[in-house]
Design brief:
84% helix
């Protein structure tokens, strides 16, 4: 689960370029899986490894999710501004 979180967290960064939607979905999934993996690793009292991978996965996922959300807001805002400008000039 830790490796999956890291892979999804890294894969979320290129997903930012698609209006932020895939990056946001992958980032949130990476955060959730990373936190679950950290909890399982802590509860195993050293029997399971991968603490660093899980932590890196949820951090990468968090950064990618935040960047994706910001990019999606700016993209949506610019589209709405363009539409409002189009409707105002047509009157």
């Amino acid at each position: 689960m830790a490796i999956t979180s890291l892979v999804l967290g890294i894969a979320a960064f290129p997903g930012i370029c698609c209006y932020g939607v895939p990056g946001l979905a992958l980032g949130i999934t990476a955060v959730v899986l990373g936190r679950i993996a950290l909890g399982r690793i802590r509860n195993s009292y050293g029997a399971m490894g991968g603490y660093g991978l899980a932590q890196a996965g949820w951090i990468c996922g968090l950064v990618a999710a935040i960047l994706s959300g910001l990019y999606a807001l700016f993209a949506l805002g610019s589209i709405l501004l363009a539409l409002v400008g189009t409707f105002q000039t047509s009157r």
